[in-house]
Write a structure and sequence with these properties.
The protein has about 160 residues and is of the alpha+beta class. The chain has helices at about 25-30, 35-45, 50-55; strands at about 10-15, 60, 65, 80, 85, 100-110, 110-125, 130-135, 135. The strands form 3 sheets. It has a 5-stranded antiparallel sheet with strand order 1-7-6-5-2. The protein has a two-stranded antiparallel ribbon with strand order 3-4. The chain has a two-stranded antiparallel ribbon with strand order 8-9.
Length: about 160
Amino acid sequence: MLRKSFVHYAAISLIGLACGGFAVGQAAADDFKAQIDALRKSLEKYQDYKVAVRDLYLSTVGCVHYSGEKIAHHMEYAKGAMGVHFVNPTVQGPPDPAKPNVLIYEPVGGKLRLVAAEWLVPLTPDTKERPTLFGQPFLGPMEGHEPLIPREYVH
C-alpha cells in the first residue's frame, strides 16, 4: 500500500566533483565535455550549501552509511556512505543537463563539501526506455535508503 502511494523514480549519479574526476566513461566524457564543463561551472556556486538552500535545494539532513553487510530481502550496497542529499522539488520535467534536481554533499571536518549531482526522473507505466544523460542510461529503480527513506519507497 505504502509503495503504491509513492511515485517511482529512476536515479542517475553522473557527475563526481571530488578530485575533478568524471563518473562517466572517458569516451562519453569526451563526447559531452562541453555540457559537463558547463554543468561544473554552474555548480560552483553550490560549493556553499547555504546557496543551494536559498535556491530551494532542501537537505535530507542525514548521511546514510552502509556496512557492506548483505541483508536478506534488501538491495546490496557496497560499504560506504551515500552523502547528504539536497533535493530541489521545483526542478521537474525531462532531465536538464545544466540543472540537476539533487546535489550531494560529503560531511568533512564539520563542513559540507559538494561531491556529486544527481537527476531523479519519475517512472510511469508508459515509460518505454531508460532516460539518458551525457550518453549514459539512468540507473535504477532502487529501494529507499533506510533509515531516512522507507525501503518501500522505490525510486
